[in-house]
Design goal:
Length: about 325
């Protein structure tokens, strides 16, 4: 297991180096002077020069990259061009809403989709199977913002049960936080539960067609025991994979949902930074998303050892 962990961590090194290089080059990919683009059309030459010096854009590209790496080694993501605040501080202040939304969505998606996918596979070709797959198709087809506005209209405006928009931090109480996250969580769950349910169903169908399942049935083992003891554990790897990647995608891809429900998360911060051409903030957010994605993938790889003994024994 320790050897497997070391191999996974070692494999992330070139990935992280590539990510660092790509994030660094964001300033230089577009045409024109990045300092002039950040300063705006009405900026004076002095203001452009100040931005260029502040971001070390007056240095050769290799020197800029070394400065960037040195700053990252000190956990310094730079300073916002417009607010003058440290980028790391801005991201940390916006992290709680996005993280809580990702956690609640992932938890609700797993609780709903995994049993639904297993039940649909067990009832293959029956009304239950068609119902689960129909809901999955609807989840993929209907845009999240449409679901979000429908939920707002029904549960917030007409019934008045839940707040329309905004986010209440955990400091205000867990109940207030959950109430403010209920509608965006349900809207996102409509999409991600559809993905998890389809993967669960397809994997369960493959497992139920294996020889050891047929052998267990031939020995007279009850279907419930076959499902819970023999089959369910063997769908763990693909299901954990899709849940892990979905969680990482939620952290980096809830821009639309945060905009619909006016949640001050990292997604909203990214949109605001792009519109304002605040490249240090954009770089910092993208780097954080990339690191989180790599770490989630490592954790997902490590979780495979819980479901596949060959990984613990070093056979894979």
């Amino acid at each position: 297991m320790a050897r497997y962990l070391f191999q996974r961590l070692l494999a992330t090194a070139p990935v992280m180096l590539t990510v660092l290089a790509i994030v660094f080059l964001l300033l230089h990919i577009g045409p024109g002077d990045p300092a002039a683009a950040m300063a705006g059309d009405n900026a004076s030459p002095e203001q452009i020069t100040q931005i260029r010096q502040r971001l070390h854009l007056d240095q050769p590209l290799p020197v800029q990259f070394l400065i960037y790496l040195r700053q990252l080694a000190q956990f310094d993501l730079g300073v916002s061009v417009y607010s003058g605040r440290p980028v790391a501080t801005m991201i940390l202040q916006r992290a709680e809403p996005t993280l809580m939304l990702a956690l609640t969505t992932s938890l609700l998606s797993v609780l709903l989709a995994v049993p639904a996918g297993v039940f649909a596979a067990r009832r293959l070709g029956r009304a239950t199977d068609y119902l689960v797959m129909g809901l999955s198709v609807a989840g993929f087809s209907v845009p999240v913002f449409v679901v979000g506005y429908a939920l707002i209209q029904l549960f917030a405006i007409e019934l008045g049960w839940l707040p329309v928009q905004g986010y209440r931090p955990l400091a205000s109480g867990a109940w207030n936080t959950l109430r403010s996250l209920t509608l965006p969580t349900v809207a996102l769950t409509f999409l991600f539960a559809a993905l998890v349910a389809r993967i669960t169903r397809a994997t369960m169908l493959n497992v139920l067609s294996e020889d050891y399942i047929r052998t267990a049935r031939a020995k007279g083992v009850p279907d419930g025991r076959i499902l819970m003891v023999h089959a369910l554990k063997n769908i763990g790897v693909p299901v954990v994979t899709v849940v892990g990647t979905s969680f990482a995608a939620l952290l980096g891809g809830v821009v639309v949902t945060e905009s619909v429900f006016n949640i001050p998360g990292i997604g909203r911060l990214t949109v605001d930074a792009i519109l304002a051409r605040d490249y240090p903030v954009v770089q910092g957010v993208m780097l954080v998303f990339a690191v989180v994605l790599v770490l989630v993938n490592v954790l997902v790889d490590l979780s495979y050892a819980l479901f596949d003994p060959r990984i613990r024994q070093g056979e894979r």
